Model the fold of this input.
Amino acid sequence: MNNELAVCGFEAVRALAKQHPENIRRFYYIDERKKSFGDLFRDLASRKIPYNLVSPAELEKLSGTVHHQGVVAMISQPTFSHLTVSIVDGWIERRESALLLDCVGNANNLGAIVRSAAFFGIKNIVIPQNDLQTSVTTSSYRVAQGGMEFVDIFTIHSTQKFLSAMKGKMVRFGTDLRASLSVDKIASLCGKKSAIVVLGNEENGISDEARQNCDYLVLIPSKNGNLESLNVAQASSIILYELSKK
Done:
């Protein structure tokens, strides 16, 4: 169905079943996974939600991938709240930081970033409503390894306007190969303020508009002059680790 999304991958589905079982509309599994979801089956049965033992081939058809790992949960296609001033004010009051993805185009990278964000306790992720920005897909759910259940994703119309509005409210960091500041300075530069970290497109990095609206530009120094940068998902792990020190 067009309004559904297949969630597959054992860890992703297990986290979904534990944290948000109410979101599951249909559930499919192979025999080897039966013992892992007994509690879920009882919950689904009580709510008259169908769950079915099927073949691996059927799971591949349902999920569109051979990497289903023996289980598929169908959920409604995710929708995301538009970011409002009151939501941001709550972040600032609670000293929560956030990630802004500036046209990250690969769904697997989005999933890996979500996984790192959840691991380091950064639950706020902002994405622009832009055709160059990937949204949540079956593959990003699987790669996130359960992290999707521990983050909140918000949308904005304009990266430039959002970052401009955050001036003086949150410390704005951008990632840039031309930066002179090392990423390990992030925690000290934040002080007691919340931070917003901008991660850029896989090929082009952050946009000029984002770059011009950041308080600081940082980079991860390379120890090999032949390799300028890391994949955006790998870089996010290092940046979030540094941010978690604040």
The mean pLDDT is 94. Residues 100 and 126 are 5 Å apart (CA to CA). The chain has ten helices and twelve strands. The two ends are 44 Å apart (CA to CA).
